[in-house]
């Protein structure tokens, strides 16, 4: 591997890590507050990409405006999922799991029926050109993912650790019943968690729309990685998810560059298994009392 | 101040509390004692709103509260210190205290109550920036009581505050319960340590398998031969 390829691969790793982190924090948050694994989370990512496809590629909106619109649209999908699926099935984890898996299929088919499965217009690249680092060419469109991801994670961190409502969200994730005894409305916190969960996945999908092929099934590819990240990071830990996302970003990108994508998936799962042998609670997870 | 009238609480089809009635007057310490599984904790959870009784009424200052959510009950001035402390382990001590004051919009009052917490528990002040999960059992109990105080409650429900603590720490907690009472708070104390509970309380209820087996002024209960034999081991 020459220097240019190495730099290129590192840059791609950071981009992949940023995207994984943006997707996984939402999954971790939903799991933390509601103790439910949202199998339709990949479809939130897909929905974010479709908002950009529809508004930017089809309707001709400016790219940043389309990206910003993806945030409230997918956040609303998150809230709807919470109201229609998580809240009614909160007593029954299995029913919730089946329902979110079903929702994933419904969203895929709905999007496929509306905008087609195969012959769709690709999303044009809004920011052409590439950054040149020691002979490595890194497209601006990819570079842009890094500050957007960093800004989103910083905003999320600020909210969770500095704002009262964010702290209450953490309290609900740590002990929902005791949080209620402090006067925290779990019902509202669940909606808030799912709004954030949807918004972050939607933003990730929107940013990736010009980079990845936009298809109804694109969520499928990321959901497995997102779950690996969340399990590796420690189920409910947001910081753990970010750390695991960056590690997995590097692992996947390097193995893909040196071997191929299938091997990369296998190595990723192996990494998770190794982490779990060493720390069954995940990298930054806590042991349940 | 607080009145339970014929309360039944079921877990599925099993009744944990079978038609109990009890009364707590303003500025009293009332204790519920009894063996494990007698229904003491369930009774407190019902008052706090975590269980809705299947029958009976709970009234606080004349208002029915047995259909309210825990959030609403907290807002009325009832604070629970749950069994096993139940702090938010990954949050700092200060954040735990802040959560206690979650519903309040009077910064001055919150500040005043924070001072009171630090006055009762000087150790807690030193540990403000530490994660609550890293504290010792006694310190956690103090933070749990401090968190409850932060909501500015008039009625405090203490569930097994001495559980798992050293005798010295238990005495410390008992002293603080007395201070809280002296500051005008009404207290319902659930304890397996009947000796401590009967020394602190004005009035005692003895629970057995979901029912109230005996009740009376605490001083009188201390001398009751059945209580002495069963709960004090004398």
Overview of this structure, please?
The complex is a heterodimer of chains A (289) and B (234). Chain A is mainly alpha-helical and 289 residues long. Chain A has a single domain, classed as ABC transporter involved in vitamin B12 uptake, BtuC (Orthogonal Bundle). Chain A contains 11 helices and 2 strands. Chain A has a two-stranded antiparallel sheet with strand order 1-2. In chain B, strand 4 and strand 5 form a beta hairpin. In chain B, helix 4 packs antiparallel against helix 6. Classes of the chains: A mainly alpha (289), B alpha/beta (234). At the A-B interface, helix 6 and helix 7 of A face helix 2 and helix 3 of B.
Question: Residue ranges of chain A: pLDDT <50 for 5 or more in a row?
Answer: none
Radius of gyration of chain A: 19 Å
Assembly annotation: heterodimer
CATH topology of the largest domain in chain B: Rossmann fold
| Total count of domains of chain A | 1
Number of strands of chain B: 10
Number of domains of chain B: 2
Corresponding CATH architecture of chain A:
Orthogonal Bundle
Question: What are the SSEs and their pairings?
Answer:
The complex is a heterodimer of chains A (289) and B (234).
Chain A: H1 3-34, H2 41-58, H3 63-86, H4 93-115, E1 130-133, E2 136-139, H5 140-162, H6 164-174, H7 176-181, H8 186-208, H9 218-233, H10 238-258, H11 261-278
Antiparallel strand pairs in A: 1-2
Helix pairs in contact in A: 1-5, 1-6, 1-8, 1-9, 1-10, 2-3, 2-4, 2-8, 2-9, 3-8, 5-6, 5-8, 6-8, 9-10, 9-11, 10-11
Chain B: E1 2-11, E2 14-24, E3 29-34, H1 40-48, E4 55-60, E5 63-64, H2 70-75, E6 78-81, H3 93-100, H4 107-120, H5 122-126, H6 137-149, E7 155-159, H7 167-182, E8 186-191, H8 194-200, E9 203-208, E10 211-217, H9 218-223, H10 225-232
Helix pairs in contact in B: 3-6, 4-6
């Amino acid at each position: 591997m020459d220097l240019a390829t190495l730099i290129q691969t590192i840059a791609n790793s950071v981009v992949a890590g940023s995207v994984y982190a943006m997707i996984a924090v939402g999954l971790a948050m939903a799991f933390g507050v509601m103790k439910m694994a949202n199998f339709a989370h990949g479809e939130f990512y897909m929905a974010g990409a479709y908002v950009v496809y529809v508004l930017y590629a089809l309707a001709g909106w400016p790219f940043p405006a389309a990206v910003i619109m993806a945030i409230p649209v997918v956040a609303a999908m998150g809230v709807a999922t919470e109201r229609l699926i998580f809240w009614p099935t909160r007593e029954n984890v299995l029913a919730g799991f089946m329902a979110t898996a079903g929702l994933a299929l419904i969203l895929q088919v709905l999007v496929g029926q509306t905008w087609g499965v195969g012959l769709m217009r690709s999303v044009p690249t809004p920011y052409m050109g590439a950054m040149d680092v020691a002979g490595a060419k890194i497209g601006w469109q990819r570079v842009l993912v890094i500050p957007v991801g960093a800004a989103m994670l910083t905003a999320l961190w600020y909210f969770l650790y500095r704002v009262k409502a964010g702290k209450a969200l953490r309290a609900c994730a740590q002990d929902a019943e005791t949080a209620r005894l402090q006067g925290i409305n779990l019902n509202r916190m669940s909606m808030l968690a799912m709004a954030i969960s949807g918004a972050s996945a939607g933003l990730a999908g929107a940013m990736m729309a010009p980079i990845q092929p936009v298809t109804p099934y694109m969520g499928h590819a990321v959901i497995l990685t997102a779950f690996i990240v969340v399990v590796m990071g420690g189920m409910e830990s947001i910081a753990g998810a970010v750390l695991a996302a960056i590690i997995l970003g590097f692992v996947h990108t390097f193995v893909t560059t040196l071997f191929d994508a299938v091997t990369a998936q296998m190595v990723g799962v192996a990494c998770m298994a190794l982490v779990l042998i060493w720390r069954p609670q995940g990298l930054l997870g806590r042991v349940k009392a | 101040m607080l009145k339970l009238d014929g309360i039944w609480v079921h877990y599925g089809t099993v009744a944990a509390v079978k038609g109990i009635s009890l009364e707590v007057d303003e500025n009293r310490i009332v204790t519920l004692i009894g063996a494990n599984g007698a229904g003491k904790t369930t009774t407190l959870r019902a008052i706090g709103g975590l269980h809705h009784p299947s029958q009976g009424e709970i009234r606080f200052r004349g208002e029915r509260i047995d259909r309210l959510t825990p959030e609403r009950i907290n807002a009325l001035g009832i604070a629970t210190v749950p069994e096993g402390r139940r702090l938010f382990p990954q949050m700092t001590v200060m954040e735990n205290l802040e959560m206690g004051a979650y519903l309040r919009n009077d910064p001055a009052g919150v500040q005043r109550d924070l001072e009171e917490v630090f006055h009762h528990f000087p150790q807690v002040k030193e540990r403000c920036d530490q994660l609550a999960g890293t504290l010792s059992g006694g310190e956690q109990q103090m933070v749990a009581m401090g968190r409850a105080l932060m909501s500015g409650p008039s009625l405090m429900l203490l569930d097994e505050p001495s559980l798992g603590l050293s005798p010295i720490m238990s005495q410390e907690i008992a002293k603080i319960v007395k201070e809280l009472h002296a500051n005008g708070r009404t207290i319902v104390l659930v304890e397996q340590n009947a000796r401590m509970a009967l020394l602190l309380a004005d009035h005692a209820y003895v629970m057995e398998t979901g029912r109230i087996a005996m009740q009376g002024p605490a001083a009188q209960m201390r001398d009751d031969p059945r209580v002495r034999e069963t709960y004090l081991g004398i």
